[in-house]
């Protein structure tokens, strides 16, 4: 009997242990707070740009709390070592963060409100992490977000999450989509309505098809985009230029039924389904598709199912769809839909960097700046940096 009672007492004491542990002072020192739901929908890949590795991706922050939460710092960390490889705070954080659907940029990027995410709202941090070419790219990333509770308490807290493995799959290696030059590779991660920050929710999923999209505009040595009346489409230097297959591929989709305005001022607004204008999608294999958009009507020389060879002329550059001037929109995606696919990284096997525009707003009215960096003019196996002026060698 004594043994049975002793055993029973021990069992009862064991049952009390969890309660005692929960009541320790250490637990009381860390109050439980609601935090952001952190997610990285698309794993980043290391893309070679200007002699560096670029990790371009998005960190989504959803606020399910009963009060607004304001991120004050975001750190990107090497998941294996814990080393901080990027830190955003202050104005840099405000510029990176946007609220989809809440205006062009989500908030005034110069104000503190740019970092406040109201209850029930969803923020996106557009991350651009660069690493030296000689640095080892982390196998995986973690994220640390510090934030302020925007209520009477002004409490501060932090949350860790959004673990993601870096995508190690080989990037598509492509040839040039155009001949010669100079061509300006127009894109910028900071533009609120640029390719980089535009999400389309198609078929129940939000995607960024233009994550690595480039608008190619032809200029001359003085930076001019036209040789006559700037309102006439046929005066643009790039209009009618041959568009080339970037790889041996199979034609996936073609559209060639949209007319072209004779002048910029007469160009109509287009519905979402017509934004791409006349376009071609090439199936590159391995779930990758190359898109050419805003093509000249009647110029498309290929049909779905047709095999094409790298360097083959497939169409000419035009002015159709959602466009403010003749240019070639080019991007690579993970599906054959113009809007219902994720934009993915690629590299061009060779091109020469002649210079760049530090202020793309002067395009067409001022010369571009000649190259002054100590990098080689010939770039191989790289993605063109923002607003660089390049020349293609198609031999």
UniProtKB/TrEMBL annotation:
Top EC category? hydrolase
Cross-referenced Gene3D superfamilies: Glucose Permease (Domain IIA)
Q: Could you tell me what this protein is called?
A: M23 family metallopeptidase
Q: Keywords assigned by UniProt?
A: Hydrolase, Signal
Is Hydrolase tagged as a keyword? yes
Cite the GO molecular-function annotations of the record.
hydrolase activity
Q: Which residues form the signal peptide?
A: 1-28
- Looking at the record, the residues that make up the M23ase beta-sheet core domain are 234-333
E.C. number(s) listed in UniProt: 3.4.-.-
Q: Which InterPro entries match?
A: Cell_wall_metabolism_enzyme, Dup_hybrid_motif, M23ase_b-sheet_dom
Q: Which is one Pfam family of this protein?
A: Peptidase_M23
